[in-house]
């Protein structure tokens, strides 16, 4: 038992304090990180709202901090180094790895390991396997480091269905993942990147971050505007990042025949779909989940080079003592792109 607490989502609208894991002795191959910032993920908020089973390590899985302890056999990391949380590299031992499907490793999350902590990053200090963090270069701030995990979710989606040079793509939903998806699609070769987003402030931010066209999903002329933009063809790829039935339907409508619908958002409730609409256009429908360990290196490199921008994505930084209030605000409809928690406050 320690004198520090961590906070985990344990049920519907319930955040419970638990004893933080003891970090006084560092296990081999592990590091202890003093958490600087922890981002509140949309899945955290959904788990809080609905109360579905949620692994304790997921309660606060977007974090950055400074290494304060290094275990035996750790290479490439030292005390004082700034790091961000990643997923695990492929284990090489599970049935998926043995079959050659390393990107589908069954042990890519910290929660799958016997040394998994009993909580996530809603706490001042955390001990994790050294292979599950990435060092941050000087040009990447700790605040940006707390965004690396969701940014890599967007990177993974675009790498799964990458635009060809000259493609027109639409991104529906201007949350953090949607704004990052828009930037990655443009970097990957899309010539025209359309952001469809609610709220003038979100559309303005998307334009500042590089969207070539911004549109309102409530505009009754939305489909006509897309047709005019594409010469009557429709978009080549639609990245659905809002996670609701209306966005999926809109993406289906905006796609050209033979286009690709990439489902990035995560509906946590049943949605009504009409697959015949996909078949009528012979669409490719793809999904994406999380990320692979090696993709974090790409995200951090793009941040370091200034090719991926995060300005305007963080709405506020709140103290750990305010955590329950922040969850209530977010579940009540607060329009935040990303709220960070500072466990030191």
From TrEMBL:
Its EC number is 1.1.1.-, 1.1.1.303, 1.1.1.4. The keyword Metal-binding applies. Pfam families: ADH_N (PF08240), ADH_zinc_N (PF00107). Residues 11-341 form the Enoyl reductase (ER) domain. Keywords: Metal-binding, Oxidoreductase, Zinc. Its cofactor is Zn(2+). Gene3D superfamilies: Medium-chain alcohol dehydrogenases, catalytic domain, NAD(P)-binding Rossmann-like Domain. One of its GO terms (molecular function) is diacetyl reductase ((R)-acetoin forming) (NAD+) activity. SUPFAM superfamilies: GroES-like, NAD(P)-binding Rossmann-fold domains. The keyword Acetylation does not apply. PANTHER family: (R,R)-BUTANEDIOL DEHYDROGENASE-RELATED (PTHR43161:SF23), SORBITOL DEHYDROGENASE (PTHR43161). Belongs to the zinc-containing alcohol dehydrogenase family. This is (R,R)-butanediol dehydrogenase/meso-butanediol dehydrogenase/diacetyl reductase. It comes from Microbacterium thalassium.
